[in-house]
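U., I forgot to send this yesterday:
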Amino acid sequence: MKRRIKRVAGLAMIEFTLTVAMFVATMSVAADLYMINRTRGEYDRISHTLASVLSVQSYLSSEDIDQLLSAAIPSKEIGDYELHIYKVNLDRSMDWKPLQRGELSGICPTLNSGDVFSSDLPEEDSDNSDDAIMVVQLCGESGGLTPFASLIDNKVMAVTAYNRTQYNDIDVDKTLAAELGVDEEDDDE
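Result:
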């Protein structure tokens, strides 16, 4: 009888230990998924904020862009990122190359093919090159965001925001013009 009680007590202890281990693992994965979803929400908020602010500008400088990004992007909350900013006319033509910022490179899917925007647009008019849309693409990796992220496969989080520009002709400074591939004497960029 004593032997049976010890055996049952031993089995109960093993079951309890396995149950606690499974509970801790499940909670860790759930916490990781929550953190990744929360970070994706931050990416969404940041990209829409940037698209809104950039779409009402008539002049952009490299210094202004850097200050805007340092104010709008909480790097310690979202980690390393890659950012692309496109100015796309409604006929899908692009007046300049995509502006790229961030610590990462090559993780964002390409949205253009040469001087033509190849991804989806919220509105399109093949005969209209006078109106434009500011497209902001923010990408990051889910790996390294949480302590147990190794349990979840590393995925690229990509968020794209669109906002119609208030001014089709946006002037840029010399530094930004060189980065965007815009002719300096071309004042209507």
